[in-house]
Amino acid sequence: MADLKERLLPPKPASAVNLRDASYRPSASGRQPFQGVDVMGLKKRGQGLRSWIRVDSSGNSQIIEVDKFTMMRRCDLPARDLRLLDPLFVYPSTILGREKAIVVNLEQIRCIITADEVLLLNSLDNYVLQYVVELQRRLTTAAVGEVWQSEGPELNRRRSSRNYDSVFGTPSPDYLPFEFRALEVALEAACTFLDSQAAELEIEAYPLLDELTSKISTLNLERVRRLKSRLVALTRRVQKVRDEIEQLMDDDGDMAEMYLTEKKSRMESPFHEQGSMGFRSNDDSRRLDKCLSIARSRHESMRSSESGTESIEELEMLLEAYFVVIDSTLNKLTSLKEYIDDTEDFINIQLDNVRNQLIQFELILTTATFVVAIFGVVAGIFGMNFAIPLFDNPGAFKWVLMITAVCGITIFCAFVWFFKYRRLMPL
């Protein structure tokens, strides 16, 4: 009990605990899962601090405590973007490309991706932990950074110009910049989460629908109603992720804005450094700084026009892969909805058939009641107090009964023939 309490207590503000050195239990696959503090975005009283998980480009992770305004200055984000990451509020799935960061809100994965690090709220949610572990695994096992560093600045220059074909032969997802790899893991986690929920819904739905077709009961109808409500909610979430990816693929400007590594490399280029060093020595450099910014923007636009197409195609291929995955999940849910609709149509047909049979039975019963009423009419007539010679005949009762029965049967057959002629019942 003491160990559990110690693990659930928030870390001390001065400590940035490396998650690899923290004590956590190994999983069944042999990999040690990520463990953090489940603060769920709650602010510390009197400090306004939040616990964040930081993963750098080398795969190192640590827990940091930063307030909202520091995070806004650090990532150059407005307050409305940080509200998208608050787990206390429910926002639709969104991927926003900003000047220095990418804001990702995909189901449980809510994080800020920069050119050097990934920041997400500290949580013990299983999918958040899996995202951190998977991102660390890919960053540490790819070893792409070591290859680039060992080849020297020439290969770094080629990397910044996106000439992967001339250096490595064919482009590979392992050579994507850091922000794209982090975004890929987030997309994979969200698509996997939605696909698993769709699979669970399928496993539960098909046996229930088959049972409903064989036995229509109030309990089964209520279960199907709840199932359909869950299906509609899940379809809406999947559709939102699909629309967000499709919207990014259709907008080249948004995709170019998300290439943070290239923008950072342009900001750190010798042209930018020389200009900034030259103008820092002059106190009255506002006008010159403005001229420099204009010249720099032109220079950057010329460089971005050369590499923009390739980088956009690179991100577009990444988005297309997960667009296919999420579209497949949406097709599963659509097929399930169509199966539910077909089951409802089948049940309605069955109920209509039963209703028609009841109407036919009621029609025949009404006709038979009319025929039987004829005997009552005859009995009422002969029960009147008047004298006729028929009453003195010993076989008169039998003849009256036979004639009445023949007339009643004839009238009943005439009604049945009329119903058949008018196609009121399938006889």
UniProtKB/TrEMBL annotation:
Superkingdom of this entry's organism? Answer: Eukaryota
InterPro entries (UniProt xref): CorA_TM1_TM2 (IPR045863), MRS2-like (IPR039204)
Q: What broad class describes the main subcellular location of this protein?
A: membrane
The terms under GO molecular function for this entry are: magnesium ion transmembrane transporter activity
Keywords for this protein? Coiled coil, Ion transport, Magnesium, Membrane, Transmembrane, Transmembrane helix, Transport
Membrane-crossing segments per the record: 363-387, 399-419
Q: Name one GO cellular component term.
A: membrane
| Membrane topology listed for this record | Multi-pass membrane protein
Q: Does the entry feature the keyword Ion transport, yes or no?
A: yes
Q: Which residues form a coiled coil?
A: 224-251
Q: Where in the cell is it found?
A: Membrane
The role this protein plays is: Magnesium transporter that may mediate the influx of magnesium.
- Recorded family membership: Belongs to the CorA metal ion transporter (MIT) (TC 1.A.35.5) family.
Recorded protein name is: Magnesium transporter
Protein source organism: Linum tenue
